[in-house]
Amino acid sequence: MLNGKIDKSVPIPLYFQLKEIIIGEIKNGNYEKDAIIPTEKEFIEHYQISRTTVRQAITELVQEGWLYRVKSKGTFVSFPKINHNFMQTLESFNEQMDRVGSVPKTEVLELKKIKASEVIASKLGLGKGEPVVYLYRRRFADNEPIVLQKTYLSCKKCGFILDCDFTKDSLYKSLARTNQTKVVRVQRIVEVDEATNEDAENLEIAMGKPIQSFTTTGFNVFGEVIEFSLARYRGDRSRFEVSANI
Predict the structure, then answer these.
(1) How many folded domains does the chain comprise?
(2) DSSP string for 96-147
(3) At 37, which CATH number?
(4) pLDDT, tens digit (0-9, with 9 covering 90-100), for 131-183
């Protein structure tokens, strides 16, 4: 189905108008994910435009992540990856989504007090078996699951977190109530991994699909560890931007 109209009387390039029409069809659901789009010939005949115009529009949409090509089959609908730049900035998930124009949602899978394992205790500077807050969240962008986050915090310092509603509240904003618990600096390690059964079930992807795994350690103004988190992002829907001054 072809909708929209190309106006040849305005000083807007025809290929750009076609791009906007196709993006609009994707956003309003007329072109669903992985659905094949009309052929070059269909675009040419419907909008009375040249093959060059159609090819430029399609090529740019492929480069921008809206579409993808399959040899001998056609061009299909994708969705552009969500661009995260928290490698340089301390930004909440909701802030990231607002910045890129997506609607965020958080589902709290678990929020409880547990005994620290040897690994978690060492990360938080605690003794094995000491109480920690365990927060397990699934985060969505436009109702699509994007990331699983497991966070561990010292109960002694951050026990008040157990009373927060993380379907609405930001973890970092909640921790910012005192200098002792406010996270002012983080160290992040990123690795490429494959989706486990847990990832597949919660992120609605197949096992073995690419996962971007982040380990985050958050520090307060005194240099003390406040937070230790493990985040697993869908590789097909996320990319991470890093910049450096030279």
Answers:
(1) 2
(2) HHHHHTPPEEEEEEEEEEEEPPHHHHHHHT--TT-EEEEEEEEEEETTEEEE
(3) 1.10.10.10
(4) 999 999 999 988 889 999 999 999 999 999 999 999 999 999 999 999 899 99
For residue 25, the enclosing domain spans: 14-77
User: Which residue type, as a one-letter code, is found at position 218?
Assistant: G
Lookup result for tokens 């070059």: 40
Write down the pTM of the prediction.
0.66
Residue 9 resides in a domain: no
Dihedral of the alpha carbons of 124, 166, 139, 197, in degrees to the nearest 10: 60
pLDDT tens sequence across 25-63 = 888 888 888 889 999 999 999 999 999 999 999 998 888
pLDDT at residue 245, rounded to an integer: 54
Two tokens at 73?
């089959």
Contact 101, 94 (CB under 8 A): no
Contact of 65 with 71, CB cutoff 8 Å? no
> Which residue carries 């990331």 as its tokens?
147
Residues 107 and 214 placed together within one structural domain of the fold: yes
Residue 238 predicted with pLDDT over 70: no
Rg (CA), the chain: 23
Q: Give the span between the Cα atoms of 146 and 212, in whole angstroms.
A: 11
